[in-house]
Automatic annotation (TrEMBL):
Name listed for the protein in its UniProt record: EFMT2 methyltransferase
GO BP annotation list: methylation
UniProt key word Cytoplasm: yes
GO cellular component, one term: cytoplasm
Keywords: Cytoplasm, Methyltransferase, Nucleus, S-adenosyl-L-methionine, Transferase
Length: 211
């Protein structure tokens, strides 16, 4: 990750903006990314009482939308205290007292952060991957952390603008231990673009299931 202070500064600005005008700030990957996740959960008939972890929750807006869709067992974590402070303000405004929010470093999760049936990442793995300090080690630790918090049979939904489908498959299947732990389930549809006669995706969204 970049230094916590830089994220804190960004979220402190968003917190001040929220207090001034009630704007919760940026939604990473846009509102369609949240709709895509919720539609998949509904299509799979994921029970509304399933335990859901939002990794790097930021302003917590995804959790708000999940709560509005009927999901009841929601937890958001972020390693920036200012992000959690902002998400608490957003939660308070929306009256969603059932959403749990915690300051947590996902690369060193606390013991009580375990047993989740759904884990969601919108950009956090991207942010870790952009850190020039021991990037490979941090990516491997991310996968280890994921395996420790996600229940066997649980689903991991990741949205990325840095990684292709094939690259994400390699990241989450790498190593003897993980090869049998996480497997790809499906690819979620994302907007396509055409450049130089070739069609591509600006965003990749995959669902893995832990075995």
């Amino acid at each position: 990750f970049p230094p916590t202070s830089s994220w804190d500064a960004a979220y402190e600005r968003e917190l001040q903006t929220f207090q001034d005008i009630g704007d919760a700030g940026e939604i990473w990957f846009g509102e369609e990314s949240m709709v895509r996740i919720i539609r998949w959960l509904e299509k799979q008939k994921v029970p509304l009482d399933s335990s859901v972890l939002d990794i790097g929750t930021g302003n917590g807006v995804l959790l708000i939308e999940l709560a509005k869709s009927g999901y009841m067992n929601l937890t958001g974590i972020d390693y920036s205290p200012s992000a959690i402070q902002l998400s608490e303000k957003v939660r308070e405004k929306e009256g969603m007292s059932n959403i749990k929010l915690k300051v947590e470093d996902f690369l060193a999760p606390s013991a009580e952060l375990s047993g989740f049936e759904i884990c969601i990442d919108k950009g956090t793995f991207d942010a870790i991957s952009l850190n020039p300090d021991n990037t490979m080690g941090k990516r491997k630790q991310y996968v280890r952390s994921l395996c420790s918090v996600l229940k066997p049979g649980g689903f991991f939904l990741i949205t990325s603008c840095n990684w292709t489908k094939e690259e994400l498959l390699n990241e989450f299947r790498e190593g003897k231990q993980l090869n049998r732990t996480i497997c790809q389930l499906t690819e979620l549809p994302t907007p396509k673009f055409c450049f130089g006669g070739r069609i591509g995706n600006s965003v990749t969204a995959l669902v893995f299931q832990r075995k």
